[in-house]
TrEMBL record:
Keywords: Cytoplasm, Histidine metabolism, Lyase
Gene behind the chain: hutH
The protein's name in its UniProt record: Histidine ammonia-lyase
Gene Ontology cellular component annotations, sorted alphabetically: cytoplasm
KW Lyase (keyword) present: yes
Stored PROSITE patterns: PAL_HISTIDASE
Amino acid sequence: MEQSYVEVSTGPVSFADVIEVARGGAAVRLSATALDAIDRARAVVDELAASPTPAYGVSTGFGALATRHIAPELRTQLQRSLVRSHAAGSGPEVEREVVRALMLLRLSTLATGHTGVRRQTAQLIADLLTHGITPVVREYGSLGCSGDLAPLSHCALALMGEGEVRDAAGTLMSAADALAAAGLQPVELAEKEGLALINGTDGMLGMLVMAIVDLRRLLATADIAAAMSVEGQLATDRVFAPELQAIRPHPGQAASAANLVALLTGSGVVASHRGPDCNRVQDAYSLRCSPQVHGAARDTVEHAATVAGRELASAVDNPVVLFDDAGGRLESNGNFHGAPVAYVLDFLAIIAADVASISERRTDRFLDKARNHGLPPFLADDPGVDSGHMIAQYTQAAIVSELKRLANPASVDSIPSSAMQEDHVSMGWSAARKLRRSVDGLTRVVAIEVLTAARALDLRAPLMPSPATGAVVRLLREAGIAGPGPDRHLSPEIEAAVSLVHSGAVLAAAQSVIGELK
């Protein structure tokens, strides 16, 4: 099968491009327009390199050492030294998809024609992505200011033919061997190129884009889980009516409520207690207020997407090449500061924790005979002999507790560095790393709610669930997750449900019946 390509030009790459390259393994090529822009900016750097006047990043040291003028014969060594010294990460390897995302986004900035690299340097990044060569990047090392320096330096090191990488098959090897096996030549970095390769928010931005994509899917799936819980706990769907949402016009709330209405349409369970003899006045907040919580989370995700879109359209480097009627010039700036990205990464960790919290509360109600309206305690087959889903809720609770800790913002912390030259940093990389754990935790919590609600709906027989929620129950059963019965090893069923939520299969099952959810 022919490998798909993503073309990088002078404009921003899209969310879809990031996902296609990071997770789909797509190849990458530079457009002719991008190559022309790269050449134009490089000409400015070459002119400054030949000038006797010092220019930061071209003929000087870096950071707190910027006052030293570097002689021409030492500048190649300067670039090598910069990358080697800054490739100082420590800890576990960062996931392949994260490294591929940050490489693509760094290439996107180079393609804007504001960084001053040579075309062969930019091309080699595209070649590594195309050949599936992934530099080994370590967990710790970025403060999220002056860019994700250490992570990007590990990638720049591979362009020099140094350090460790993994090939397309995942085999760990030296960068020199991987380049040779792919028929690629390492580059000897010229003036300005070291800074241009490492001075960006690409790592935190790549993780933000992937988290937004994942959270959009998860929030739609959380609506499915909530609908199953509303149904299984004999709650009302009247509170989700559009006229009620219209008098508090938050768009996310309206979308979530509309999803719940669509998901519950045709439910025999809901219809069974809709008559005038129903004595339920109001449902618990975790059921009644699902659209308000899920909706606020949706609105926060879309704010984060706006910020990510702006950052994707940015050329983050210092210094940058600018052009006006007088020609090209080099200007220092502070655009590498990760604050805009760091803040929204922290916001998303907060909403992941809160959506997981309300999901856990809905699940817990199924297990308490005083609140589950006629279901057996813990949904057990023979309560006392069997424990049912008692400990599945413990697992949820443990995850939710961790998510609350992860919701503590990283971006409010700052540790000065570089001899007080870099005296305020964003910690955006740290915010991104913990958000990835938060997204995973939310996936698991929602999966356990789906698993528990499906069991409850089976126990409501002969009352029938809605066509949409019934499709989700069938999906679980067809995946080998059995219905109610005596206790059995529960962990494999939880992991199977997690996989179905993570892959989007739960969302697809509901949408196969009622069409695309909002």
